[in-house]
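Dear colleagues,

As part of the handover before I leave the project, I'm documenting each prediction I ran so the next person doesn't have to rerun anything. This entry is a single chain, and its sequence is reproduced below.
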Amino acid sequence: MHNKVVFHAMKALNSFGFPVLRFNFRGTGLSAGRHDEGRGEIADVQAALAWLKHEFTLPIIFAGFSFGSATGLRAVCPDPDVKALISIGTPVEAEGRLYSYEFLRDCTKPKLFVSGDRDHYGPHALLEQVVAQAAEPKELVFVPGDHFFVGHLDEMRLTIESWINELLEHDSLLPS
């Protein structure tokens, strides 16, 4: 919740007037509970969405980083109130875990995938395969940097802002 990638993504969304909710998954930081290998963490995302829907009557754009992206995409693809998805540092293989994204074949919401060009958790070829199998509309952008975009956070943020701006021009998702 407090890393620089999440902070810059939050600033990108907030620059368009979207309220942003950042949270730690169960067992992370000071959050209660224990890590549940992704199962319970999907429920964490769904609880966050429920809170957003209760507090605001705005279109929701989901943005997740790394594990948050992999888990969040599963939770938000079927949710009709989530209008667009941003996956940052999408992990394909990390520390012996392989991530599966077959569900993206049926997810027809606009999707942006942003990855560092040297991200060891999302190697080019593997991430390109994941995105190729996802339903349209989708866009994959490699920006300089590693998994945490060290030295290139501005490029990551500008990529997100440019995509949101393009999305808003075509879909009138802008908060009033």
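The chain has a mean pLDDT of 88. The first helix runs from residue 4 to 14.

All the best with the project,
I.
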